Amino acid sequence: MSGPDQRETEARLGNLMWIGVAATAALALAGGIAFYYASQLRTTAEGETVRVAVTAAACEPNALTVPAGKHVFEIANRSERPVEWEIVDGVMVIEERENIAPGFSQTLSADLAPGTYEITCGLLSNPRGTLTVTPSKTQTAKAEAPALKAFIGPLSEYKVFLALQGGKLVASAEALEAAIAAGDREAARTRYQETRRLYKTLEPLARRFADLQSTIDPLADYLGQREEDPGFTGFHRIEYGLWGKNDTAGLTPFAQKLTADLATLKGRLREVKLQPGLMVASADSLTRQIAEARLVKGEDHYAQTDLADAEASLEGIGKIVDLLSPVIVASAPEVATALTAALDKARARLADLKDDAGFPRYAEVDAEGRQRLADAFTGLADALDQLEAATRVG
């Protein structure tokens, strides 16, 4: 082909080439725009590797959304300085990768719960990005137990509770000892009930010390000579004198020993190494003991103050529940809900037996009333069984 026809064909081909170049440029521009927006906000599916670039000024993308669960993050340093990348929850660093060299990438794995986090992007002066973690069916079904660090706050708060209550307990015992020494029976009865209440709030852990338990709170029922047995000491021996004999005579040595034993208990409670499992197991064991033994026939044979005892014990059990149940709300919400309901029911059953004058003598509570109360404590013990499983640290 030659002449005008060839020149016309070449012209048409040239025009098509320019159109192709223009179209390619347009597509490239559109892709660049799309990439820009994708770099600013990205949603990553479960199981995908999350890729983030750290530039001199920010992260690309600077906003991420991922489902809850385990993820691998690949961090590329596209700046000229070594950088670090962190996932931050408030002031706590969840995961981090430090000293990523320029031009290199590093990875990190993170198991993330639902929530909104921040991500650091190189220099501290750079604006932080955001990481939104949405609920995941996989994570919900997995329901893993919380890590031990999740319990640091509750354990610390319970430690403080033990120390404060222990101090009050010894001070109250000293006041009881003084009232008995003065021969003031009514004042001694008042002090006895206050000291007893404080002890019962500590009972979940206090009863763990077998040697002290056998001198602080033995029942005459389990001693060979009952009330005349030399081993009959502690609270119930003083109760026997103040209510069984209506007198303070001869009680001073028992009051002195009780004060000394409670001071030892105070020291033990300050030194005990707390773990979530110990707290829950202690509360569970006590709750079941109350339900299956103490509420059947009672143990305050002389003062008949078993309901006041149960209320104080429930206060101590409730303290443990109130501290630990919020930790498992995310991992085992049904356990937390059932536990709160069981605790409320036990409190309500006790409240049903109380009026403006206080609790009646336990001998006046009929079999049906005792059974209803015992059933509520059994339900709480069953819920505590579930809490024990849910607080096994992962």
Verbal overview:
The chain is of the alpha/beta class and 394 residues long. It folds into two domains: 97 residues, Cupredoxins -  blue copper proteins (Immunoglobulin-like, Sandwich); 243 residues, M75 peptidase, HXXE motif (A middle domain of Talin 1). A six-stranded mixed sheet has the order 1-4-10-9-6-7. The chain has a four-stranded mixed sheet with strand order 3-2-5-8, with no helix packed on it. A hairpin with a 2-residue loop joins strand 6 and strand 7. The relative contact order is 0.08. About 9% of the residues have low confidence.
Task: List descriptors.
single chain, 394 residues, alpha/beta, Immunoglobulin-like, A middle domain of Talin 1, 6-stranded mixed beta sheet, 4-stranded mixed beta sheet
Q: What characteristic shape results from the CA principal axes?
A: elongated
**Could you name the CATH topology of the largest domain?**
A middle domain of Talin 1
Beta-strand portion reads: 5-15%
The top-level CATH class of the largest domain is Mainly Alpha
**Strand order in the sheet with the most strands:** 1-4-10-9-6-7
List how many beta strands DSSP finds.
Answer: 10
Low-confidence stretches: 13-42, 139-143
Oligomer: single chain
SSE pattern, N- to C-terminal: HEEEEEEEEEEHHHHHHHHHHH
- Chain-averaged pLDDT: 85
- The helix/strand class is alpha/beta
For the record, the CATH architecture of the largest domain stands as Up-down Bundle
**Helix share of residues?**
55-70%
Spatial gap, N to C terminus: 81 Å
